[in-house]
Design brief:
Elements (H helix, E strand, L loop, with lengths): L7 H8 L5 H11 L7 E5 L5 H8 L3 E6 L2 H11 L5 E5 L12 E6 L10 H11 L3 E12 L1 H9 L2 E5 L3 E10 L2 E11 L5 E11 L3 H10 L5 E5 L12 E6 L1
Parallel strand pairs: 1-2, 1-4, 2-3, 4-5
Antiparallel strand pairs: 5-11, 6-7, 7-8, 8-9, 10-11
Length: 243
Amino acid sequence: MTAQYIHFARVYDKWMQNVDYTEWWHYLATTFSLSKGMRVLELGCGTGSLTEQMLRAGLDVTATDTSSAMLTQAEQKVRSYPHSRLLCLDMRRLPQDLGLYDVAIAACDVVNYLRGTDELANFLRGLRPLLKTDGVLLFDVHGPGRMTEWRNGPYYNRVGENSCYMLHVTLKDTRIAQRLTGFVRGTADTWTRFDELHRQTYFCQELLDSALIDNGFAKTQFYEFGAQNKPSESSLRLQVAAR
């Protein structure tokens, strides 16, 4: 997990301009009754775009990521907010002295970066003591529709004036490999190339439900991401709420 989002961190926000984090936060806040004053533990905060939305809404946020490069970008967004803290840590080995939280959030495929059921169990087992008795874990994962989409069209690219990328996705059973080649314009029309390999795991709804129950979560709900209806075989992304 630590070898990813290094060079990518510099251009991540530019390449994710199509993501509406304001709407993302509105969906989470309204669907799961998140409000001012709540203590949030964010896993895989990235460059802090969703973190900033939560801080603007008056929540107390401890935002974490394994990538120091991504945290450097996040620091520029959250430095002016008093109720914020950034930590570089691994969600598979959560320190037990982080305190108690009302909500834990792992947004934008963060859980998919766990390599199999053992790492998933380690994450859930380590997180459970950090949540209050009525606390909730919110995360999203790739849906079955996304896997179908990748099987049918595994190549993606983006061309911009100062940066571009090519992405190739390969699937093997539940393993996902995303090979990213990026180019960033420097001075005097020079370009810098970087290559990153992002390894993920596809977790189906049944497996997630079983893992959550086995690791101390009593009630789990699955949604079509961005809505409040149940997911289907065509769902690109699943939203999970575990209490």
